[in-house]
Amino acid sequence: MLTPADMALCGLDPETLFAPLAGRKTIGLAVSGGADSLALMLLYAAWSGTKPRAIVYTVDHGLRPEAQAEAAMVAREAGKLGLSCRALAWTGDKPSTGRQSAARKARYGLIAQAMDADGAEILLTAHHLRDQAETVLMRLAHGSGVSGLGGIRTFSSVEGICVFRPLLGVSPETLATLVARAGLSPAFDPSNADGTYERTRWRDALPGLADLGLAPDRLGKAAERLQRIDALAIRATDGFIAGHGTLDPLGIVRIEREAFGTADPEIRVRVIERALAGVSGVQSFFLSRIEALAERIAAGARFTATLAGTRILAEANTIVIHREAGRRGLPTASLAPGQSLVWDGRFVVKAAIAGTIGPATGLGREAFGALTGGTLAGPVAGLRAAPLVRDAHGEIAAIGGIEVGEGFSVEQIPLTSWAGNCGNRPPDGAVALVSPE
């Protein structure tokens, strides 16, 4: 247990660190057993305010023989601090390549399931100042734009989990000091020192960069400033889309071309990126491709192009972007009563009765008119990439966001949801059903 003197020595105040959690009922703490996450757990336990119920989640990835003992150590130390702990295990075959990425996805998947079962609203992780510095450098090397160079956010959505990182401004040396003063021996994962991983190489380069003036605190401050610029650009993009863009019930985006041509170049890039994300359900693109596409449209060219599972029609007065089925088609599934799912990253479907969902393949303008009583305003290909919901008898209940029967509700994920904000999570318990591409 930390004493007030320990925290004063390190310049940390739990009351300030965890203030954003006011009003939460249950939260999760991701604790691996390393010094950073043990410090997070110690600081949370030292918080003397009225705090949410906390559950510690630790994951044995099954990649190292020491992992099981490390998970047991976390559970033991959590118990000493009066915190509940759930030890989770990643079982089954492990990939031979891309293990770090696969382990991260598995870890968040396991924790997400446990949080849903426990009613936990938000997950705290121990990302710190050096993590931020490494991320900024990596993204700079990869050619990221302003959003990417803003680095790690204090709040974000990761694999459907709302994540809070209270220690982003704290150095790992400070956290290690806290753990040592508490008398704990943290676990060490040798992969963190493996130079085959890019992040490790940037970590090893940091001391030399610090000698040139690029210390982690400077990089962290740069990330804060870029996040402010990014937030301003996001608001401007929201305003442009509200005034000059539409998302129709079939998931087709339309943008007024004249307004697009007179917009600021940064906003043009962001509008196209946002539209592609909303139409494809994908949230990551090569920035250079988006920039080239936005520049081509702004130059007045009329063309048809495809990108990230979408088709872009640059017409005389309108930019039309719709989903394509792609090489492997769009997802299909059965719906059980009471089930919610996110279809193709674009539509949230809630079923009161049993049914099925899949793409509206084969439907044309005449069938659309007969079912809805309206006229199809967009391309038939856009209609055929929209979800078609049928009841157990095969009767059509919804086309895209147009409900023509009973027993199902369909909502579109708005264009403002692509950025991964905590406030834009799908409904609790919703299954993410994505394209097999």
Describe this structure in words.
Keywords: ATP-binding, Cytoplasm, Ligase, Nucleotide-binding, tRNA processing. GO terms for molecular function: tRNA(Ile)-lysidine synthase activity. Residues 27-204 form the tRNA(Ile)-lysidine/2-thiocytidine synthase N-terminal domain. Pfam families: ATP_bind_3. This protein is α+β, with helices and mostly antiparallel strands. It folds into three domains: 4-218, 3-Layer(aba) Sandwich (Rossmann fold); 242-323, Uridine Diphospho-n-acetylenolpyruvylglucosamine Reductase, domain 3, CATH 3.30.465; 333-433, no CATH class. Helix content is 40%, strand content 20%. The chain has a six-stranded mixed beta sheet with strand order 3-2-1-4-6-5, with helices on both faces. Strands 7-8-11-10-9 form a five-stranded antiparallel beta sheet. The longest helix has 29 residues, at 216-244. Mean pLDDT is 91; it is low at 423-429.
Pick out its properties.
437 residues; alpha+beta; Rossmann fold; Uridine Diphospho-n-acetylenolpyruvylglucosamine Reductase, domain 3; 3 domains; six-stranded mixed beta sheet; 20 strands; 40% helix; 20% strand; tRNA_Ile_lys_synt_N; tRNA(Ile)-lysidine synthase
Beta strand %: 15-25%
How does the overall form come out from the CA principal axes? globular
**CATH C-level name of the largest domain:** Alpha Beta
pLDDT average, as an integer?
91
Q: How many structural domains are formed by the residues?
A: 3
Round the Cα radius of gyration to an integer and report it.
24 Å
Helix content: 25-40%
Overall SS class:
alpha+beta
| Contiguous runs where pLDDT drops below 50 for at least 5 residues | 423-429
CA distance, first residue to last residue = 49 Å
CATH topology value of the largest domain: Rossmann fold
Catalytic activity: cytidine(34) in tRNA(Ile2) + L-lysine + ATP = lysidine(34) in tRNA(Ile2) + AMP + diphosphate + H(+)
Domain tRNA(Ile)-lysidine/2-thiocytidine synthase N-terminal: 27-204
InterPro entries: Rossmann-like_a/b/a_fold, TilS/TtcA_N, tRNA_Ile_lys_synt, tRNA_Ile_lys_synt_N
Main location: cytoplasm
